[in-house]
Every structure is written in C-alpha cells, then in structure tokens.
C-alpha cells in the first residue's frame, strides 16, 4: 500500500515534459524547414557535380569543352542571374517597407532576368544539339546536359513560383503568409545563384582551361 | 506545472523580440547596403575569373588557382549578403545544417573523384593493346 502511494506521489511531482505543447505561431518553422530542403537539393547538385567531375573528360572522340563553349554567352548568362539576385534583394527590401506595388514590380523584373537566363541557356543547348553535341554523343555531354539542365529546370520552377507569388500578393496583399513565401523564394533564388557559381567555374571556365 | 512551464519559457522570453511581429519572415538585417555590397563583390569576383580565362594573361596553373579561389569567396559572399547566413539565424540550426551538408558534399565529391581517378589509373594496363596476346 505504502509503495503504491509513494509511487503515485512520485508521478505527481516529477514532470519531465509539458503536458501541452505551447503555441507556436503558424509557419514559424517554415523557413528552417525550407532551408533543410535546400540543403538536400544541394546534395543533388553535389552528386551531379561529382558525376560531371568523373565523366567530364570522357569525350568518346567527340567534341571537348574548348570546341563547344562560348564564354561571352556564359558571361552574359551569369550577369543575368546575378542581376536577378540583386533585383530579388530589392523586392525583399520593398516588402520590409510594406510597399506592395514596388515588391511586385521588383519580383516581375527578377522573373524577366530569370526568363532571359533560361532563354540564353536554351539557345546555347539548341546550338550544341545543332552541332551534333547531343547528350547521347559522349559521357561528357550526358553529364553536362544533366548538370546544367537540372539547374535550368530549378530556375524555371523558380520563375513559375515568382508569377504565383505576384498573383498571391495581388490577391491578398503582403500578409504574413505571403511574406513568409517571399522569404522562402528568396532563399531558393539566391541558392540557385550559388549553384551557378559552381557551374560556371567548374564546367565552363575549368572546361576551357582543361 | 505552471512553475516548470515558466522555467522552460524563460530563455525564449529573454530574447525579447522572439515573439515579435515578423521575426520569422523578415530578417532584420536585410538592408539595401548589404545587398549592394554583396552585388558589387559578386560582380568583381565574377569578372576577374572570366577575364583571366578569356584573355589567358596568366599561365594555366595560376589561372586555375585564382578561378577556384574566386568561386569559393563568391559562394561565401552570397551566403552572407544574399542568404543572410550567420550563427544566430534560426537559433544556429541554419548554420549547423549547412555545416553538415558541406561535410557530406565534401565526402561525396572528394570520394567520387578520388575513387574513380584511381579506378581509371588502375584499369589502364588492361586496355594497353600491346599487352594483348
């Protein structure tokens, strides 16, 4: 009897956890979760970079980077992405100042730079395929198209997201949820620019030096 | 119960702005000056490697070294000025997950290149036509 009583007393006094979770504001963990998604995306790109690093020298008697790449075009492409990064920064600043019109304008300008980037990349791909440098030609070209294409696909989805966000801001204004989405997209967009640094350095510049 | 809850909540409250209006969505340190600084640094760090490779002013090994170094510096610049990374964001979890990712990425890249390079080197004699019977 006494043993049961003291055990019951123990349970009554020792509490190691909250009985109820205290309230978190809605979406308070979204940014961290999105960051962790970006880190997993980073692993995808790391594997594609590793694949390119391993296969990038296997030309199968086909064209090499020196025969294919046009650095002025890549420089133009890089500047498009860099400009889109700073215009996205302006959109974030406008959002902080609660300027709805300005936020939307900067987002659309960012989307235009993104579209310019994608257009130039598609032009480059079509030129390569025209010259017979298709993904099937060699292991180098397979890994090249996979790596650069995956990055381009990410940018394309980013552009779709920008247009979605502009529409949502037009409908609901700069509400808490939209500001959170804008910050998630900000991380996504700048992350893609970071990946592009790797692409133009290791694929294009190193390819010309090879 | 209420006493424990209070103790658990104390460190959160000490931040002051933790329960503020927009601590989650808008990092307070996103400033125009920060973005401009990051942009100008990025332009310089992009222009130099492109210039070096396109003109070929320096010898190959020096160029490779500079191009690699510029890329690493530019990634750090982007992380700080555009992605607003610091040890404090999200209570340090952003930085922790980044460090974890960098370790995994380094193992993946270095491991793949190392193993495959040695595989290629060791496979070479097999393809030597003069050795064939």
Which key features would you list for this structure?
heterodimer, A: 210 residues, mainly alpha, Four Helix Bundle (Hemerythrin (Met), subunit A), flat, B: mainly alpha, 4 helices, Cytochrome bo(3) ubiquinol oxidase subunit 4 (chain B), cytochrome bo3 ubiquinol oxidase activity (chain B), transmembrane helix (chain B), cell membrane (chain B), proton transmembrane transporter activity (chain B)
Give an overview in words.
- Chain A is an all-alpha fold and 210 residues long.
- Chain A has a domain at 66-210: Cytochrome c oxidase, subunit III, four-helix bundle (Four Helix Bundle (Hemerythrin (Met), subunit A)).
- Chain A has helices at residues 2-13, 30-55, 65-68, 71-96, 100-130, 139-172, 176-209.
- Chain A starts with a helix and ends with a helix.
- The mean pLDDT of chain A is 90.
- Chain B is mainly α and 133 residues long.
- Among the domains of chain B are: 30-84; 88-125.
- Chain B is 68% helix and 0% strand.
- The N and C termini of chain B lie far apart (85 Å).
- The interface between A and B is large, with 56 and 52 residues.
- Chain B: One of its GO terms (molecular function) is proton transmembrane transporter activity.
- Chain B: This is Cytochrome bo(3) ubiquinol oxidase subunit 4.
- Chain B: Residues 1-23 are annotated as: Disordered.
- Chain B: It is found in: Cell membrane.
- Chain B: Its main location: membrane.
Tell me, briefly, the overall form of chain B.
flat
- The strand count of chain B comes to 0
- What is the chain-wise order of helices and strands of chain A? HHHHHHH
Order of helices and strands of chain B: HHHH
List the uncertain runs of chain A. Answer: none
Uncertain runs of chain B: 1-26
Rg from alpha-carbon coordinates of chain A: 24 Å
Strand content bin of chain B: under 5%
Count all strands of chain A and give the number.
0
Count of alpha and pi helical runs of chain A: 7
* Average pLDDT taken over every residue of chain A: 90
**Secondary-structure-derived class of chain A:** mainly alpha
Oligomeric status of the shown chains? heterodimer
CATH top level of the domain at 66-210 in chain A is: Mainly Alpha
Q: Profile the largest sheet of chain B.
A: none
CATH-derived architecture of the domain at 66-210 in chain A: Up-down Bundle
């Amino acid at each position: 009897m006494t043993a049961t009583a003291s055990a019951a007393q123990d349970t009554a006094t020792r509490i190691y956890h909250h009985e109820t979770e205290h309230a978190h504001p809605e979406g308070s963990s979204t940014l961290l979760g999105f960051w962790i998604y970006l880190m997993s995306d980073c692993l995808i790109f790391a594997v594609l970079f590793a694949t390119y690093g391993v296969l990038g020298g296997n030309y199968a008697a086909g064209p090499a980077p020196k025969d294919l790449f046009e650095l002025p075009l890549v420089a133009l492409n890089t500047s498009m992405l860099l400009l889109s990064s700073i215009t996205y920064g302006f959109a974030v600043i406008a959002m902080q100042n609660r300027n709805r019109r300005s936020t939307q304008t900067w987002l659309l300008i960012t989307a235009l730079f993104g579209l310019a980037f994608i257009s130039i990349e598609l032009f480059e791909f079509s030129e390569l395929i025209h010259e017979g440098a298709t993904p099937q030609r060699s292991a180098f070209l397979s890994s090249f198209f996979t790596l650069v294409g995956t990055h381009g696909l990410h940018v394309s989805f980013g552009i779709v997201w920008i247009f979605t966000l502009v529409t949502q801001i037009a409908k609901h204004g700069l509400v808490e949820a939209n500001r959170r989405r804008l910050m998630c997209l900000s991380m996504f967009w700048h992350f893609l620019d970071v990946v592009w640094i790797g692409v133009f350095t290791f694929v294009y510049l190193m390819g010309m030096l090879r | 119960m209420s006493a424990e809850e209070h103790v658990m909540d104390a460190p959160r409250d000490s931040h002051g702005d933790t329960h503020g209006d927009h601590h989650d969505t808008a990092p307070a340190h996103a400033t125009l000056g920060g973005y401009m600084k990051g942009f100008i640094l990025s332009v310089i760090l992009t222009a130099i490697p492109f210039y070096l490779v396109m003109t070929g002013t320096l010898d190959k090994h020096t160029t490779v070294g500079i191009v690699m170094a510029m890329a690493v510096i530019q990634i750090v610049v982007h992380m700080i000025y555009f992605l607003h990374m610091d040890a404090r964001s999200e209570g340090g979890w952003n930085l922790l997950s980044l460090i974890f990712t960098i370790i995994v990425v380094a193992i993946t890249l270095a491991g793949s290149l190392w193993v495959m390079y040695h595989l290629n080197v060791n496979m070479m004699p097999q393809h030597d036509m003069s050795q064939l019977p």
